[in-house]
Amino acid sequence: MVDPKDIDFYSLGFNFIETKTMFMATHKNGKWNEGELMPFGNFEISPASCVINYGQGIFEGMKALKGKNGEITLFRPKENAKRFNFSARRMLMPEYDVDKFVDTVKRVVKENEEYIPPYDSGGALYIRPILFGYGPILGVHSAEEFKLIIFTVPVGPYFPEGFKGINLEISKKYTRAAPGGTGSAKTICNYAGTMLPAKESKARGFAQILYLDAIHMEYIEEVGAANFFAMINGKLATPRKSGTILEGITRESILELASKKLGIEIEERDMSYKELYDESCTEVFCAGTAAVITPIASVTLEGKERIFNNREPGEITNKVYKLLTGIQRLDIEDEFGWIIKV
Q: What is the pTM of this model?
């Protein structure tokens, strides 16, 4: 455990820092036990466990934030619980009660309250629920025993640039997911395969890859671990939910904010990367729990670069960012019922 007094909350990156308490529950013989809070630490696992051998595992990403008055907030945690169960079903694992999930997250956050970065730091307490096939098996089938663990980490911005434009490389070599696969589930399997493409892209000076669809290599899917948005012909467009992209909670929130608060027409549709090179595309950004809302300064394909807004955040990007973070930190009234206080 790292002493919170030794943490500089004003210069955090997105790196692992051990906190005090985690939660662990076990599913065995068809039912969950009550689970317990315990000191964060290692535990034993069989070399034959299903998660190690066959990748039967899922996770969620959530954040606890401090408001100006010191109140602690969670953003739409029931939606995380529902997506957690959606991913569990896809990976043939047991679901966890939605209300119990939210209550347990609140307990873990409260236990680690001293690790929540101050309001004015811009940081957050990242919450990581994981569920995996714990029991030993041989042969490709579901485990018979599972573990649910929830732990926390104090973090700063996912991209070191913060709320500044990042440069992306469009890939026609790698894809993230294919139709009929696990692209819409938040499974560990989806992320290991993106490490090599991301490393290669970063070595060429880009922050991340912009993935295209696996069939036509033309339609935009995701930015690494974030959903993609573009202002095209005055409308806010984002790739449709086709089963190959993560159905982001931040994504849904942005669409609702743009439509109801900014009066912008939204489109969920197939979006060709070629549209990004047209003058009708005026600004682009990506979004997710970790990335929050991150402006995109440029996209590049095979040496052809398109720069947006002189690499500065666009008008709509700014407005949506201020609305979203304002609601999350209690600076703007939450008329949507998205915030749950711890």
A: 0.95
